[in-house]
Amino acid sequence: MARHTGNGYYVQAPADSSWYGGADVGDLLIQARQAQEAKERKQRRIVGFIAFIVVVIFVAVIGLVSYRSIAKRNAAQNVTEDQAYSALQSVKLKPKFANDKGGILFSKAGYGKKTANAPTLEIYTDPMCPGCAVLHQQMDATLRALLDSGQINLEIHPVTFLDNMSTDHYSSRADNGVAYIASNDPDPNHLLDFITNIHSDDFQPEEAADYKPVNNRQLQEQAMAAGVPEDIASKAFGNEYEPWLSAAAQYTLRRPELKDIGGQFKGKLTTPVVVINGKMLDISGISDIGLTYKVAILQSIGLANEDIGVAGKQPAIGADGNPTFPKTQPSA
């Protein structure tokens, strides 16, 4: 009789071949092989059909995701400045002291308050932006002294333009920390120190292919090093403010007054952006003539270097005056 083995069918003939109905043993072997081959063909067809269905489903899913991504991007590109502004206003969860343009204002008097007779500096900064790191490394100590002496008001605009340059939404997570700390830690110095820490050379990650993942615990450590209490730092790096950050970024991108006025990026928005009493500093221009951020900003607000941090020595342009920007050569 026939028995199945690991390699096929092995046929053992009993002494009385009439038990097979008179069939020859060789015929039985051929029939057994044919049956096995038919079974294997059926299995291959089933496996092939399943694989085909899987491929079809996979392609359909990829196509749907790509379609949605393209549709979302196209929809974002077609949004007007007014529509982006309205979308920002409609976000339900915003940082406690966020203004209508996506900024977080603070001064010597605390969050959401201005020091009288002091100019307001707006800084638009992305935590992955190398140029932003240069600005913070050159200016943060000076900004801190100007704030503590009541010589400026500071408005931070955390932007997430470089989120896709990391594999784990680094810009969004770090900026979520900015929003959360501003909403829950009453000391603005802690926020500024955190921003300084994440823009330092030994912490800010590289972009794109050189990016090495930064986990939330590493960001928490930078926040605590800045003085943020641990119970606040441990909750700061989620994504609850992502809708606000995204809407603020979309609105910021559409503001013509923030776009470069010269150089290779003329007409485009690049970070960092510095605005003084509502007027944008020409960063490309000051770079062309070799000025540091510190020199350019002090000249713009009308304050001598020796008067930094000196109470009672207010910048010449005051709260409403036009900045006396450095005269810059036309950018190439």
How does this structure look, described?
The chain has 332 residues and is α+β, with helices and mostly antiparallel strands. The chain folds into 2 domains: 62 residues, no CATH class; 215 residues, 3-Layer(aba) Sandwich (Glutaredoxin). 45% of the residues lie in helices and 10% in strands. The protein is built from 10 helices and 8 strands. The strands form 2 sheets. A 6-stranded mixed sheet has the order 4-3-6-5-7-8. It has a two-stranded antiparallel sheet with strand order 1-2. Helix 3 links the parallel strand 5 and strand 6. Helix 5 crosses helix 6. The radius of gyration is 33 Å and the shape is elongated. The N terminus is likely disordered.
Task: Draw up the topology in text.
Layout: E1 2-5, E2 8-11, H1 25-77, H2 81-90, E3 104-107, E4 110-111, E5 120-125, H3 130-148, E6 153-158, H4 170-184, H5 188-198, H6 216-225, H7 230-233, H8 242-253, E7 273-276, E8 279-280, H9 283-288, H10 293-301
Parallel strand pairs: 5-6
Antiparallel strand pairs: 1-2, 3-4, 3-6, 5-7, 7-8
Q: Characteristics of this structure?
A:
332 residues, Glutaredoxin, 8 strands, disordered N terminus, 2 domains, 45% helix, alpha+beta, 10 helices, two-stranded antiparallel sheet
Shape: elongated
What is CATH's topology name of the largest domain?
Glutaredoxin
Rg, Å, rounded:
33 Å
Counted beta strands: 8
**Strand order, biggest sheet?**
4-3-6-5-7-8
Report the major sheet. Answer: 6 strands, mixed
CATH top-level class of the largest domain: Alpha Beta
Query: Uncertain runs with pLDDT below 50, 5 residues or more?
Result: 1-23, 58-75
Q: Which percent range describes the beta-strand content? A: 5-15%
Instruction: Determine the mean pLDDT.
Output: 85
Structural class: alpha+beta
